[in-house]
Amino acid sequence: MPIEFLERDNKEIWNLFVEKSPQGSIFCKYEWLEFSTKNNFVILVYKENSNIVAGMPLPFFYEKKIRLPRLTQKMGVLFCDFSCLKYSTRLEKEKLIIGSFLDFIEKYKLSYTMNFDWNYENWLPFYWHNYDQTTRYTYVIDYKKQDLDEIWKNMDQNTRNVIKKADKNGLKVYRSYDIKKFYDYNKKTFERQRIKIPYSYEYVKSLFSQFQENSYIFEAKDDENNTHAMNFYIKDLKSVYYLMSGADEKFRGFGAQDYIQWYAIRYYYDKTLYFDFEGSMIESIESNFRKFGAVQKQYFTIRKKSILNNIKEIARIVLKRYII
User: Fold this and answer.
1) CB of 109 within 8 A of CB of 91?
2) What gap in Å lies between CA 199 and CA 176, rounded to an integer?
3) DSSP-derived secondary structure letter, 75
4) Which domains does the chain have, with CATH numbers?
5) Phi, psi (5° rounding) for residue 263?
6) Model pTM?
7) Is 286 exposed, middle or buried (0-12, 13-18, 19+ CB in 10 A)?
8) Which end of the chain is more exposed for a tag (fewer CB within 10 A), N or C?
């Protein structure tokens, strides 16, 4: 059978596959899975002639509840580049592979909820296996299609004015390695919304330590050395991702975060292919990303609960409806 678990001593082979896959990202790399799940994962691979042609990471496999780890943007199913195939042949191949993966998930009665890469297009095989899907959106700048002048021109006029004003007021952007300071600023963002921050300082510190070559913290300061805002980015060979941010409430009117975004867009221009804002379904956040002239990309959240979870959910609804 062409489907099997990836053996742990083949992690470099897996990482090479991830780098070449159109759906691959740093969040699918073996080291990210080790870090983010504390080794509680498996990777299903589909092979042809002993070569991996598709893969499906299953984080938290041993808890039987497959879900995204903290600060992980996406995983889903990864394919090798099938662009050389006829369109109908490619769809048939994807159907066969995904069906094999889902037969495995259903055999083990796993609950499954996952964000997929925006390069993943065909969710029909999941539909045929009684999965649900929600379409979500991110915003992406494609560096291959625009130079920096074009990116600037495509930005909303108000956003450009905010950036010009921040520059005129003497804001400067620096690279920071102070992860504790960043976490404190990031935490303030959640506290303003009266939301508990969903990850610990130790988790973010470990992320920054283990992926320091891929991680950048940019800090905006004024002439008096006051920190206005800090943004955290992480990159791979294909994309840079806007992962986290934080700002000082006292300086929110100075435009520091927009200023950092423009700095980061320019910084990564010749270092990767895409700038991914990691979109939000919150209207106010979506509008901010859109104003940078980025292009809307849709991606899927695909889910299926285990039979046991479905029974529990039905029971909960019935009790809520009929018991006072």
Assistant:
1) no
2) 20
3) B
4) 3-135+300-322 (3.40.630.30), 145-272 (3.40.630.30)
5) -60, -45
6) 0.90
7) middle
8) C
